[in-house]
Amino acid sequence: MNNKIQVFREEPGFLKLFSLFKEKYRSIGRVGGTVNLDNFSTDEVESIAGFLGKSVEAILNKGKVSLLSFEKELPLTGFADYSLIELLEEVLGESILTKNEESGIEEEKEKKFFHELCFICPEGNWWWDWIELKSPDSRWIWSLYRQDLEGLMEKLITVYKSFQAVPYMENKYERLPLFAQRTTGNPHFFDYNQLTGKLLVYCMQVDQQLKGQRAPGMPKTTEDLNDLLGLYGLMRDDLWSFVSCRGLLAEGEMGLHPVWKAAADTDTVLNVPIKELMKIKKIWPAVGKKVWIVENSSVCSTIVDMVADAPVICTHGQFRAASWIMLDLLVKAGCHLYYSGDLDPEGVLMAQRLFDRYQGHVTCWRMDVESYDKTISDEDISGRLSKLESITAPELLEVVDVLKMRQKAGYQEGLVEQLVQDIKNEFNVLLEAESKGH
Predict the structure, then answer these.
(1) The predicted structure's pLDDT at residue 217
(2) Final residue of a structural domain among 212, 235, 258
(3) pTM tops 0.70
(4) For 256, which DSSP code?
(5) Structurally, how many domains does the chain consist of?
(6) Residue 114 backbone dihedrals phi, psi, to 5 degrees
């Protein structure tokens, strides 16, 4: 810095004044406006007044300094070679850009970042587009971007390539550490306390949101996290996720499974965790080819009490990984699924998920307008109706229209007698036919 410029560092008030000039210029995007001198000491005002060739009283009376007036004074004070911004940059030792200029540069930087992501991994465009839109659930990603742009890109690409190899793509299930070892060489790479683990979960969350299956936001509970991973065939805990059933037989490595056989013979309900389901090669009803599925455990228990031996499954709410494994095996064995859920947005979405996954093997059971009229409650569902926009199954469209119109939930408990009678009618016919066959 030359001696002339050094004066501004040594004279009191100028660094403070120039910092205010810089922020004013950045804010309005041009040399203009004024800065206030209220917080300047007498010595600082005297120094500025002396440089400008004005009296201290004149400066104090105005109480502010104009950027444009200051720039016009520069040729008269030996700084004809400088514009005000050039002088500020020299004195403050930094390049000065307006906020609009900075924004433009940052936008170009962001475009380059996502262009490179799309070039390296074009199949992930749906995820890159989501992040680039800066939706509220991506704020933490942008915080990472500002901290370490290159590191984030590397992690995003690694995570997405692993996401493409999730076992569900091959209708398999795998423990999370083994999946991490297989895809990255590090069994702890996708632990949830690791950034890469959270990125993988976020990728899955966005995928589900785009499919209309989940609301925005990362999983808030361990149960929710396990459910999300389970949708992609990944298991953090193979004992936690289970499904309840009655009246089903199973085949393991050694043939007909004795526990399942004993349960069917004694009309016993089984709570089967993923750990045991992983050993099963085939599942089928002890009688017939139809399986009745309910989400509510109280309703399921009542059905079990009222209809002996009927093949029934209880999912205990939303489908978990264990439920999907069991249903996959049943459909593979040629079974037909009858599903009955609550007549609210979440219950209808569960039915849609079954339709999407098992086309031609699913029938909605008591999920029509007549059933809704019998079960309607006072619960307001107006804030959840947007979930119904993804419903496409023809069997559900009529009741969806009525749900949107009446904006009240219907609950499965109001249909227990009809559900029991439906199974009795169907199951008694099967038992009678089987008896005659013997």
Answers:
(1) 83
(2) 235
(3) no
(4) E
(5) 3
(6) -75, -30
